What does this fold into?
Amino acid sequence: MSGTATRAGARHPQPFDISAYLERTSAAVNRALDRSLPSERVKPATIHKAMRYSLFAGGKRLRPALCVAAAEACGGAMEAALPYCCAVECIHTYSLIHDDLPAMDNDDYRRGKLTNHKVFGEGIAVLAGDALLTQAFEIAAKATAPKRFSTQQVILEISNASGSLQLIAGQVADLEGEGKKISVPELKYIHERKTSALLCCSARLGGMSANCTPRELEALTDFGYHVGLAFQVIDDILDVTQTSEQLGKTAGKDQAAQKATYPSILGLEKSRAVAQRLTDRAFAALKPFGKRAEALNALATYLLQRDR
Ligand code: GRG
It folds into this structure.
C-alpha cells in the first residue's frame, strides 16, 4: 500500500480504505453475477425477475469480499475468485429468501425492500431460492479449476457448507429452538452452522482460487470460523440496538420470535466482549499471511464495528 509523505520526508502507512475495497469488490461481483444469470427477459421471465430482484437488492456482498481478500492473502487475484464469490452470494441470497417465508421467519422486509414472497408470492419465492441454490453449483462447475484443487473439491466445499450438516442444520436448530430456553453451547451450534459455515467457506474458496497451501487453507478456516461467529454475535446485537430503517430488515425480530441470542442470554456488554474475543482469534489466525492479509484484517475489523 502507498504511504503519505510527511513534511519531514518520513512515510506513514495510510489506513486501509475498507469502504473503497467493498465498493470495488461489490461492483466486480455484481457484474459477474449479471453475466452468470439468465436475463429477466428469458422465459419463464417471472423466475428470472424474482431471482434478480433479491440478488440485486443491495446486499453488502460481505462473503464475496471475504473470498477476494482470502485470495489476495494467498497471493492470488480477484479474477480467479469471482466465480466462487458469485456462488456463495447465490447461496446466501437463496437462504435469505427462504428464511423470510411465512413458514420460517415470516418477514416483510429484507435489504431495505419488500421480501421476495411479498412481491412475487410464496410459490415463486420458494422457486427463486431453489433456482439460486442450483445456479451456485452451475457457476462453480463452469469455473476454471485452480491448479491445486479440482472442481469436485470446490463443489464439495459449497455443498458441505450449505447442506444438512451446516447451513440447513443451523436453520433446523434455529426453528426448533424458538420459544425454548437454550444454552450458550446450543446457541453456538446454531451460529456455527447458520452463519459461520458459509463465511468460512467463502474464505476457503478464495484461498483455493489462489492455489493456497494446506497450511494457508487451515489458517483461512480458523479465520473464517471465528469471523463468522463474531459476525452473528454482532448481528444479534444489532437486532436489539438498531432500527429497521438502519438494518433494512425488521429489527427486534429475535425477541418477538422468542429466539435465544447472545444478548438475550448474556446481555449486551458481555456479548460485545464475546464478539471482540472472537475477532481477536480471527486476527491471530492471519499471522502466517503477514502484510498480504491487510484486506482480511480490515474486513474483520469492519465486521466487528458495523452498524447494519
Ligand atoms: C433457509 C436454509 C435456510 C437457511 C436460512 C440465512 C439464514 C439461514 C437465516 C437468516 C437470518 C440470519 C440471522 C442468518 C444468519 C446469517 C446472516 C446474519 C445473514 C445476513 O447477512 P448479511 O448481513 O446480509 O451479510 P446482506 O443482506 O447484507 O447480504
DSSP finds 15 helices and four strands in the chain.
